[in-house]
Amino acid sequence: MTGLGAGRETGLGARQETWPGAGREAGPETGLGAEPEAARFWRNPALPGVDLLRARYVTHRFTRHAHDGYAIGVIVSGVEEFDYRGARHRAGAGSVVLVDPEQAHTGHAGEPDGWAYRMLYPSVEVIAEIAAELLAGRGTPYFPEAVVSNPHSATLLRAAHDAAERGDDLASSTLARAAFGTLLRHHAGRLPPETQLSDDPRAVRLAREILHERLVDPPTLEDLALAVRSKPFALIRAFKAATGLPPHAYLNTLRVQRARGLLDSGVPPSQVAGDVGFTDQAHLTRHFKRMVGVPPAAYQRAGTYKTRP
Length: 309
What we know:
The chain has about 300 residues and is α+β, with helices and mostly antiparallel strands. Helix content is about 40%, strand content about 20%. The longest helix is centred in the middle third of the chain and has 19 residues, at about 170-185. It is globular and about 55 Å long. InterPro entries: AraC-bd, AraC_XylS_family_regulators, Homeodomain-like_sf, HTH-like, HTH_AraC, RmlC-like_jellyroll.
């Protein structure tokens, strides 16, 4: 399978490290102090709708951002800290991390030696399909707890990740589905359909629409507030309460999401920057790395599996 091969760019500081043995069965990440900071983002055709990240971070910090889909992973070593739903969470080795779609969160090392983890990012459609088969009732699955202890799920997640990395399609698809199913059975709730309707104040809803439409040339805060008949500080408070992000951070998250779509379609990173409203490629790279964990060029290479014979 393809991905970020040895010696390719990771975008983590000045290092150009990637995991030894990439594309083969990976061994355990232990001895954090002896390993450089590294990340590998890729996709496997056996897992449609699921992105994968294997990483060890020390100084890297994820800015507050949100994903279109779920973020589900297992901490292999060290400790990650992240702010999510108004609280700071700590996830140590063996913990399973569960972040719902469109929920703002951060991420950074919880101890000096950093943390290593395996993350899977299934789309809402992937999880909804599994939930429809396993869970009774209607509504979108959500995970009330951000960090859980479930050794069986942790083992399944890591095994699915290992199988995807070495190109074992049957094993990776089977183990990933088993892992998601186990987590849904034991840790998920169901939002009633009526709670899934947008409860954003009218001003926030209109402001979001404007930012979506004016991705490249957004208005000033004052003009945005005027357009939605609000006051600037009142709009900031309402926007953050509804989305977890102030308007400018929401816009950057939206730009990175759009950038991913353009990169997936083969648009060069240098062109993507201008197409989504960043001033230059360096500006795109800085925000992209702080939300996705790898730079745009590395992310784009990870999508080359589409042309795999």
